[in-house]
Amino acid sequence: MTARRGPPLPTGAELEILGVLWTRGPSTVRDVRVALGRGQDTAYTTVLKLLQIMHAKGLVSREKSSRTHIYAAAEPSERTQRRLVDDLALRAFGGSAARLALRALSSRPARGAELAAVRALLARLDRERT
Amino acid sequence: MTARRGPPLPTGAELEILGVLWTRGPSTVRDVRVALGRGQDTAYTTVLKLLQIMHAKGLVSREKSSRTHIYAAAEPSERTQRRLVDDLALRAFGGSAARLALRALSSRPARGAELAAVRALLARLDRERT
DNA sequence: TTGCGTCTACGAAGCTCTTCGTATATAACT
DNA sequence: AGTTATATACGAAGAGCTTCGTAGACGCAA
Lengths: 130, 130
Hints:
2 copies of one chain form a homodimer. Chain A is mainly alpha-helical.
């Protein structure tokens, strides 16, 4: 139970970088730094160091292209997001992801399209129940 | 926007203590320590220090009963949970709590009663839509 | 009143996370 | 060959989190 395969959960700054890699695809340190959109507020070596740590943790893979490294998220966003949700469910909702979902839906005005997606999922769960 | 009133988000250990206070109601340090269920693995002063820090942060209130303090969660669980969910939505789901909910529901086999609650909520949202 | 059990307060160690500066390598250009 | 631009690697500082030991206060029983 809770075998927890895969890399550890990303920290705050790591998650922000993963977000860039998920939307941009494989990127260089420079690419990531630009995409973070902080201008010069974050030093180049800060992003580099983070990616090196993430590589050591198994959160990203990297490949050498001539002299620069190209980094990519090790897991698809879905899997990491699921692990993050499960973690929060465990820590704050007694392990119930459904109660977490309930709280998420009741908290904010969601857009219609997104609610429709939730309804579709519920319908599918119904169908698969039997 | 994102005005973030109220105390800061609880950390891991703080959240565990809040869980105890939410289910047990106002409790002494000793009560909390016992309810954590770690036996002697955690020192008394560790729980005390945490509660002192949480009091300074505004996460818990306390009241003096003779010589001991009685601690209580400053916010109801619903509010803190909502803030935690909103935080995760912001950091990992582009700010969309609905997409977070979708991931939560698709990740795990939920119990029927919980799914029913989600359906009821969606129905209510429908009704309020107009 | 002296001592024992229990409480609070405080300081500090060990750890992780985030940040950056410095040193070093390497390709490219003159 | 020497200079410049850009890369990586590494060390370390500063902050926050978690843990605990020690010291001091307070009530209660002998």
